[in-house]
Structure formats: structure tokens, C-alpha cells
């Protein structure tokens, strides 16, 4: 939605500069109201409506009003007056530790909804008890007020009327403040040129069922507690199937309800993929039912499609372990259907699993009734007898009434403007449909407020400050042909994990198979560092680890460090990237990281012959080093221009005949940088004194040697000291090389002459079984004594040595011909 659409959804018809925040919307949460408020203030700024604003009234200091007031303080220089009939800001959330606020969980099982962080540019928070969230938000609100003091709080003031008076609004209020909250009367009514109605939805009536006093949802007493007086079969009557009713149904069913634990039983469960997609599919079908057609029976769909899945994945069993012993539950709804589409899928699922757990344990009873009226005929210390219209009497020890707040009461003072708004808003909702269900914050709005906060000197939120000292968590999730990438590490920063000692956590809901080409990349990044924990189901990685690390090309590489479970969060900064292209791009980032390390080390060595470590440990004459420096400059320019060239060069540095193995690149990283450095130095020395040797992009090999008259040679410069766990020199006779020359950056007894005759000697029986065409067995160059001596003496000596290698190869080729003739 663009800013004009957002304004259209909030503006009251025929009442210029009067806006409503969310009070007529569905799926209201603390977070969504904040997002609505920020989007609205940003849209007003964007459309130029805040320019001449001098005095703004914000009526209601709940999540919507407090956020709107903070945003207005930052975005305008207007005086902002914040009214609330309650004596405190965010009054609803102030009374309970037992209700948990989660910013995004309402939209589970959509992707990225388990993030604990609201991730808002101001008044940010992360999931916690209702009281804690309130405290965090108020603290930040006061920090903004300290930077932008143009705020007046009128707490304990109930607005009784707003009227348009020429070009301004007259806002009348009655004071219900206490002595602790004195309110000046002299500005009543107040005059404002812009007004926000952030009045929320009201509170639940005290006796929604006559004769039953049900504690408020927002109080600790409203949450069913554990058994303490030994009732063998406690009975609960829960009235209402909105989100409050569903949550308290689960609380009543549980022996010791903890909202957070209940949520994580579902959302952090590793075996929920099938359940998630089945739930999404059911909701999609339910939403697609045409108006006038009977609605999809959600309960019936759960029975056929969800029950087998949650029974098989152990979720019902887990809930069984938590059931209140002997509990009997009655859920009363006004509608025939148990579940309504307007509620959170997570709450529906939790109720459904609780019922299935109930049914599995014989002693537990669940009953659904639908009826309009319920009255209490008897209520005494022993409980209630409830008369349910058309059904008869039902006894219950406890009655929990969650029939929603009294909206009419809260709207009553504003009827003069809200009637018109209600109708206009219903049309707006119908027009934008699903876009209005989950309001998000546009990147423009986010950047706008981030800048305002920075400019005003507002300190970062406690969440951001805490995050700075915690492990940085990021997530990759397969989504069709894409990878959905989220969290605190951008793809361009992936290689930084290798550079720092900070801790990182990578969350992967998918196993190696479904991640395809991304899976070896995970092994590559994790195998080269100890500060990354991978959260995924290890079982789905065992095969790849076996084939790549235990028995494959990366023998000896560290296995990823796996953490327990699938932690929530890391859903900020969402991006979707095509899987294969992403894997390629990330390998290239990692290759660049290695190249930079190699370049820093080698450049210093070539300049002055010294090194910080002992990776090279060779003495090379200055004239040769100068020639090598020129060669290196040319090579790095080629690497900069061609990622595939660099990728192939480094990959073959660590892989003998595994270049086409899908996981061949995993060996290239910090653990192999020392070997690669030596390999590059040896290759550079040879390239500087042998004609036209340079890096090569395509197999076979990673070097070429060009000649004027002959076809070019492919070469393989190889730096790993081990191949499949065996010392490199023990592998050279195995016919694994596919190129005309091989440079092995390993010390050893094998000198160039022996190496160049090796395959010939090994095949000195009368049967010549070369694995390469006759006369094309590779010229092998290793760090032999002669080679090292030549480098020490300088360019002329090395050139002479290499010319000798060429000459001997020519003689050897003649020998082959002779043998063949003799045979
Ligand atoms: C039973 C129930 C359960 C819920 N559970 C959750 C949950 O688990 N998580 C969640 O995120 N959300 C939940 N919600 C939604 C919750 O209402 C919002 O999260 C949040 O409180 C909405 O903020 P708000 O600012 O729009 O409204 P409110 O928080 O209601 O704030 C509106 C404010 O306006 C004031 N006001 C109203 N009229 C006047 C007037 N005439 N003059 C002066 N002041 C006035 C009120 O005193 C109030 O402080 C639940 C709601 C209900 C009813």
C-alpha cells in the first residue's frame, strides 16, 4: 500500500485531519497497532500534511496512541497532547506477568513469524511478559520525550466529545485523574488542528454472563492457574472462541500454563513442516469460499488433515504430558463452528492439540456447545450452574468469559464522526482485503524514522543494545526455487564470520537435501570456523557430512557444530534469492575472502622477502620476487574480473581430481589459506620463468602454459599437503592428474626428474597402460632441493632449471617411442 492508500484507510470522511488508528480493523495486536501508527504518521509526512501542524491531539495512550505520539514528536515541531482516561500509559498491559506479548506470532505458520524482535525503528521491543514489554516501550517513549519535549500528557482525562470548530477541533474532556495525577482544567476544551483517535477497543464487560464475574484477560487472575486444592477432576466452562478464549482454553487444559512454553512447543518443534503447510492450505481454502457459500468447517478439516500429522510427529503426546489431571472442558461459542478464521492459527492449533490430548487420555472430557444466551443460576464456593439456552444446565468449577471488549462503550463519545468512518473503512477493507490484515512497515517509513531518531539523538533500543552482545542469528529457508534469507547477517557479510571472533547462529529448518547447492556452502562456512553454531536437524545432514568430510574430498575438515532445536527469531531483513545463483555468489564471496588473505600475505613477502608467519618458509632472490610481483598483479586483475577463474584456481589448489565433486569447494577457506599461500608462491615462481603460464578458468586444471607453435598445456597447481587423508606425495603415482603439468607445493623426495619419469617407471612392464595419451603423462614439479636452490639463486637459475625439465621431458618422450617400437 502506498502512503495515499494508508491515509485513505485512516481518514474520517468529511472531517479533515481527523484519523482513526486500527479501531475498526481485525487481527489487532500490540505490534500491528504500532505498525499502523507509524505507517500513518509517515504517510502524513509523505503527503505533506504535517507541514503546518501546530497542535495535535492523540486520544488514547495504548500501543497505537503512544507510538503515534512518539512518531509525531519526531516528525513535526507541533505540540502533541496525549489523552487517556487511565492514569497510566499502556494501561491494559500493565497488570500481568502471565500474558506474553509476541510481535509476529499471530501470523504463524507464515514464514518469519517466530522472531522475538518487533524490529521497529522506534519504541522497539522483543517478546516478553506484557509488563516487561510495556516497561521497555515506556522507557523509550520517555527517551524520545527527553529529546523532543513538545509533549503534554493528559492522563486520567476521558475525552467526552470532539467537534469541528471552523478549521480546528474542539476536544472536551472530563478529569478522572487522582491527586497523584493532577490535570489542569484551564485548557478544557483544547483546540487542535489535527486529531488521532487511538481509542482501541475498550475492555471486557465485568459480567458478560449474568451472575459470573470473570477476571480480565489482562490480569494475572484472568489466567487459569495450577491446581492447588487437589480437585480430582476440575471443570472449566470457557465462553468465547476469539483469541482470548482460545488461549485460556489451553491454559485451563494445562497443569501449569506458561504461554511462552506452549508457543515454543509448537513453533520450535522440528517436525512441523507438514503441519504448517497443511494449516496454511486449510486457511487458504477457507478464505477462498465465495460470499454466500457455507464457510469451510475448520474443525472438520483439522480432524481429517491435521490430526494424523500431529499424532505422528509427537505433538499430541507432548501436550498430553502437560495436561491438567482429570480436567473437563466445555467450550461455548455463539456460532456453530468451533473455530473462526479471524483467530490466530497458532491458537487454534493449540486448542485442537489440547482436545486431542484430552481425548487420548480417557479421564479427560471435552465438549463443544453452541448457544446464544448463557446465565448462571447458581454460583457459590463450589462453582457454577450455567443455563445454556436450548441445551440445559451445565455445572462448572470455573467460568472464563472471553467474549471480547465492549467496543460500543469506547466509541460512544465519538459517534458523531465514527459512524461515517465505520462505513468508509469497511469499504476500504473490502478493497484492500488481505493487505490490511497484517500491516507491515514499508522500508521508506522505517528509514524515515531511523533517520529522525538518529538526528534527535534517541538512544538505540534495549533490544538493539542487547543484540550487540549476543550471538548474531541468521536463517536460510528453502522456499520453492528460492532461498529465503533473513536475520542479522547479510549475504554480503557472510565471509565476515571467518574474520571475527563474534558468535553466530545459522538456523536451517531444511536439511541438506532440500538445500541443494546451498548445503555444501553451509559445510564450507561452518567447517572453517568454530564461532558458528548450526541449528538444524542433524539427521538430515549426516549423509552429506559422510560423503564430503568422512569419506570425501574434505577429509579432515571440521564438521559443523550443531545446536539443539530450532531457535526462533532472525526474521529481520527478509530477502529471497534464487538458490543456485545464491550458492554461486556466496562461494565467490568466500573465494574473495581467501584471495584477500592470500594477497595481503604474499604482497608483503614479494616486496621485502619477509613474512609474518611461516607459511612460505622459502628464500627467494629479489629479482625473482620482483618478477613474481608483476605476475601476481596480472593474476589478481584477472581474478577480479572473472569469479569463475578465481573459483577454479582456488578449488583445484585444494582438490586433486575432485574438481567436479559438488562439494569440492568446501576445502577452500581459513583452514587452507596457509597451503594456498605456498601454492600461489610456487606457481608464481614457475609462471615468472616458464613461458606464458597463467590461471585457467575451466577444467582440466587451473593453469595454462601457452606456446607460439604448439597447442597450450593445461596445468594443475595443487597446494594441499594431503589427498583424502594421505600425504600428497603418496598419491602422485595414482594417475589422478588430468593435465600436462602438475605443480605440487609440497616438500618431498620426489624431484622433478623422478616425477616426470614416475608413471613411465611404474609402467615399465611391457604393457604400457598410461591413463593419459602416450607421451602426455604430466610433468611433475615439486618443491625439490634443486627447485628451492634455483629460487634462492634467482630468476636466471630457475629459468635454467625449468628449461632442464622441458629437455628431460623431451628425452622421456623419445624413450616412450623407443619402448613402443621395441614392443
Ligand atoms: C481479550 C483480549 C486479548 C488480547 N490479547 C492480545 C495479545 O495476546 N497480544 C496482543 O498483541 N494483543 C492482544 N489484544 C489486542 C490488544 O487490544 C492490543 O494489543 C492493544 O492493546 C491495542 O492497542 P490500542 O492502542 O489500539 O488500544 P488499547 O490498548 O485499548 O488503548 C486504547 C486506550 O485509549 C484509551 N481511551 C479510550 N477511549 C478514551 C477516551 N474517550 N478518552 C481518553 N482515553 C480513551 C483507553 O483508556 C486505552 O488506554 C487482545 C485484546 C483483547 C480484548
* Main β sheet profile: 6 strands, mixed
CATH superfamily grouping of the largest domain: FAD/NAD(P)-binding domain
Count of separate structural domains: 4
Q: What's the CATH architecture name of the largest domain? A: 3-Layer(bba) Sandwich
User: How many alpha or pi helices?
Assistant: 24
* Overall shape: elongated
* Ligand roster: flavin-adenine dinucleotide
Strand fraction band? 15-25%
Short overview:
This protein is of the alpha/beta class and 823 residues long. Helices cover 39% and strands 17% of the residues.
Give an overview in words:
This protein has 823 residues and is of the alpha/beta class. The protein folds into four domains: 3-202 and 408-456, FAD/NAD(P)-binding domain, CATH 3.50.50; 220-404, 3-Layer(bba) Sandwich (FAD/NAD(P)-binding domain); 470-573; 582-822, no CATH class. Helix content is 39%, strand content 17%. It has a six-stranded mixed beta sheet with strand order 22-21-20-18-19-23. Strands 1-10-2-3-6 form a five-stranded parallel beta sheet. The protein has a five-stranded mixed beta sheet with strand order 24-25-26-29-30. Helix 10 (345-360) links the parallel strand 12 and strand 13. Helix 1 (3-10) packs across helix 2 (30-46), helix 18 (579-608) packs across helix 20 and helix 23 packs antiparallel against helix 24. The longest helix is centred in the last third of the chain and has 30 residues, at 579-608. Bound molecules: flavin-adenine dinucleotide.
Amino acid at each position: 500500500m502506498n502512503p495515499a492508500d494508508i491515509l485513505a484507510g485512516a481518514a474520517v470522511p468529511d472531517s479533515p485531519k481527523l484519523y482513526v488508528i486500527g479501531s475498526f480493523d481485525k487481527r489487532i495486536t500490540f505490534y500491528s497497532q504500532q505498525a499502523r501508527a507509524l505507517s500513518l504518521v509517515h504517510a502524513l509526512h509523505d503527503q505533506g500534511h504535517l507541514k503546518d501542524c501546530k497542535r495535535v491531539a492523540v486520544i488514547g495512550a495504548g500501543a497505537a496512541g503512544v507510538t503515534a505520539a512518539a512518531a509525531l514528536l519526531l516528525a513535526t515541531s507541533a505540540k502533541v497532547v496525549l489523552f487517556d482516561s487511565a492514569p497510566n500509559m499502556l494501561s491494559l498491559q500493565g497488570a500481568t506477568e502471565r500474558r506474553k506479548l509476541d510481535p509476529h506470532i499471530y501470523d504463524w505458520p507464515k514464514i518469519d513469524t517466530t522472531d522475538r524482535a518487533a524490529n521497529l525503528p522506534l519504541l522497539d521491543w522483543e517478546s516478553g511478559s506484557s509488563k516487561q514489554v510495556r516497561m521497555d516501550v515506556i522507557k523509550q517513549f520517555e527517551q524520545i520525550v527527553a529529546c523532543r519535549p513538545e509533549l503534554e500528557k493528559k492522563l486520567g482525562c476521558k475525552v467526552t466529545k470532539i467537534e469541528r470548530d471552523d478549521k480546528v477541533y474542539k476536544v472536551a474532556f472530563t478529569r478522572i485523574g487522582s491527586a497523584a495525577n493532577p490535570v489542569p482544567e484551564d485548557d478544557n476544551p483544547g483546540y487542535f488542528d489535527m486529531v488521532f483517535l487511538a481509542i482501541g477497543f475498550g475492555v471486557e464487560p465485568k459480567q458478560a454472563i449474568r451472575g459470573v464475574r470473570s477476571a480480565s484477560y489482562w490480569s494475572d487472575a484472568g489466567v487459569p492457574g495450577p491446581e492447588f486444592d487437589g480437585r480430582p477432576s476440575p471443570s472449566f466452562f470457557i465462553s468465547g472462541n476469539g483469541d482470548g478464549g482460545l488461549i485460556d482454553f489451553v491454559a485451563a487444559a494445562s497443569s501449569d500454563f506458561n504461554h511462552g512454553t506452549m508457543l515454543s512447543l509448537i513453533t520450535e518443534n522440528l517436525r512441523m513442516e507438514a503441519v504448517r503447510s497443511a494449516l496454511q492450505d486449510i486457511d487458504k481454502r477457507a478464505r477462498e469460499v465465495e460470499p454466500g457459500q457455507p464457510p469451510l468447517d475448520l474443525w472438520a478439516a483439522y480432524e481429517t488433515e491435521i490430526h494424523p500429522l500431529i499424532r505422528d510427529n509427537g505433538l499430541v503426546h507432548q501436550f498430553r504430558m502437560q495436561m491438567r489431571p482429570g480436567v473437563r472442558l466445555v467450550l461455548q461459542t455463539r456460532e456453530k463452528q468451533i473455530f473462526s478464521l479471524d483467530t490466530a492459527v497458532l491458537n487454534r492449533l493449540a486448542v485442537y492439540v489440547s482436545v486431542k490430548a484430552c481425548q487420548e487420555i480417557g479421564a479427560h472430557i471435552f465438549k463443544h456447545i453452541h448457544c446464544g444466551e448463557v446465565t448462571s443460576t447458581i454460583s457459590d464456593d463450589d462453582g457454577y450452574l450455567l443455563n445454556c439456552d436450548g441445551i440445559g444446565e451445565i455445572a462448572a468449577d470455573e467460568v472464563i468469559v472471553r467474549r471480547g471488549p465492549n467496543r460500543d462503550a469506547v466509541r460512544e463519545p465519538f459517534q458523531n464522526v465514527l459512524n461515517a468512518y465505520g462505513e468508509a473503512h469497511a469499504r476500504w477493507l473490502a478493497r484492500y482485503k488481505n493487505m490490511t490484515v497484517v500491516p507491515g512497515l514499508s522500508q521508506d517509513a522505517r528509514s524515515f524514522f531511523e533517520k529522525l531518531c538518529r538526528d534527535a539523538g534517541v538512544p538505540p533500543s534495549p533490544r538493539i543494545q542487547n543484540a550487540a552482545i549476543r550471538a548474531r542469528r541468521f536463517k536460510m529457508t528453502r522456499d520453492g526455487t528460492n532461498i529465503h534469507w533473513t536475520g542479522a547477517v547479510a549475504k554480503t557479510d557472510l565471509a565476515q564470520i571467518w574474520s571475527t571472533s563474534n558468535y553466530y547462529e545459522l538456523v536451517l529448518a531444511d536439511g541438506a537435501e532440500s538445500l541443494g547447492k546451498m548445503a555444501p556452502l553451509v559445510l564450507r562456512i561452518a567447517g572453517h570456523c568454530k564461532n558458528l553454531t548450526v541449528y538444524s536437524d542433524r539427521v538430515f545432514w549426516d549423509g552429506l557430512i559422510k560423503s564430503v568430510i568422512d569419506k570425501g574430498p574434505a577429509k579432515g575438515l571440521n564438521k559443523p557444530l550443531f545446536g539443539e532445536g530450532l531457535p526462533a527469531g532472525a526474521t529481520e531483513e527478509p530477502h529471497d534469492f534464487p538458490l543456485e545463483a545464491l550458492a554461486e555468489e556466496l562461494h565467490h564471496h568466500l573465494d574473495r575472502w581467501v584471495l584477500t588473505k592470500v594477497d595481503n600475505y604474499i604482497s608483503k613477502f614479494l616486496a621485502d622477502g619477509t613474512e609474518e608467519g611461516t607459511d612460505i618458509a622459502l628464500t627467494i632472490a629479489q629479482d625473482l620476487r620482483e618478477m613474481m610481483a608483476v605476475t601476481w598483479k596480472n593474476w589478481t586483475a584477472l581474478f577480479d574480473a572473472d569469479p569463475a577463474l578465481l573459483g577454479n584456481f582456488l578449488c583445484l589448489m585444494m582438490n586433486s581430481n575432485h574438481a567436479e565433486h559438488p562439494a569440492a569447494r568446501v576445502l577452500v577457506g581459513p583452514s587452507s589459506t596457509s597451503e594456498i599461500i605456498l601454492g600461489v608462491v610456487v606457481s608464481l615462481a614457475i609462471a615468472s620463468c616458464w613461458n606464458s603460464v597463467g590461471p585457467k578458468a575451466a577444467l582440466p586444471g587451473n593453469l595454462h602454459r601457452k606456446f607460439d607453435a604448439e597447442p597450450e598445456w593445461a596445468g594443475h597447481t595443487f597446494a594441499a599437503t594431503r589427498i583424502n587423508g594421505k600425504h600428497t606425495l603418496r598419491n602422485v603415482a595414482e594417475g589422478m592428474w588430468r593435465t600436462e603439468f602438475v605443480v605440487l607445493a609440497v616438500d618431498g623426495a620426489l624431484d622433478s626428474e623422478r616425477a616426470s619419469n614416475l608413471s613411465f617407471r611404474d609402467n615399465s612392464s611391457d604393457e604400457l597402460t598410461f591413463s593419459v595419451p602416450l607421451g602426455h603423462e604430466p610433468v611433475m614439479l615439486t618443491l625439490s632441493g634443486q627447485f628451492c636452490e634455483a629460487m634462492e639463486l634467482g630468476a636466471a637459475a630457475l629459468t635454467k632449471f625449468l628449461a632442464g625439465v622441458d629437455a628431460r621431458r623431451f628425452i622421456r618422450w623419445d624413450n616412450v617411442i623407443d619402448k613402443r617400437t621395441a614392443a
